[in-house]
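User: Show me a protein chain along with its predicted structure.
Assistant: Here is one chain, sequence first, then structure tokens.
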Amino acid sequence: MRNRRVTLVVFPVQNSMNKLFYIQQIIKIIRSEGYGIRVFLLDRGFFSWEIFHYLRNENIPHIMPVKASGKELIGLLANEEIRQFTYSLNKNKETTQEIEILRYSNSRCKKDGTVERKHCGFVVFGVDWNLLKVKRVYRSRFAIESSYRMRNIVRPKTSTRNPVARYFFAIVSFLLKNIWVVLLFEHFRKKQRGPIVIKSEWFRFDAFIDSMLDALIVIRNGKNENLDIVQAS
């Protein structure tokens, strides 16, 4: 499974369920399948003291972008004289949780020609990496976004509000994407020494979907022919 970006689990999200519940279930499944966690990459939407508390207690290395709120945290992120600092969530409460933050700043030129300076940071735990490596590793998380786009390509269009049907369609689309990834590793990697190099342009996802559709047509026509033979007899 090394370097293979496949979807292992998909949960239907319910507003009534705490986000920590989903994190716990995902980690439980990962461990039950015998996998280890080198580093857990989370979206800033999971920025909460209880999730950090759980991950630390489980000794799970993790990286998450900072969700800046409050004058103190915003001020620390804007202080370009510091590169790393400790911040307390829920300060002065029984649920106080300390987190380590690597801060950085980005500049971008706006359409009007002015330069905007944005102050950001990563919550890091269990990894002794510099900022460049943290950014590089976290960037790999965006393969998840491409998985969503691929899912949308093959997900059946439906107007039903039945959550079971919609969830089923989503699972099937992710499974198709996983099959494509496995085929790439098995048949479309460059023959060379050293690290594996996958040549996805040799077998693009849209070509895979076309071949699947062709196979379904053959299967359907084959069934129709068999039905005609049975009816004729």
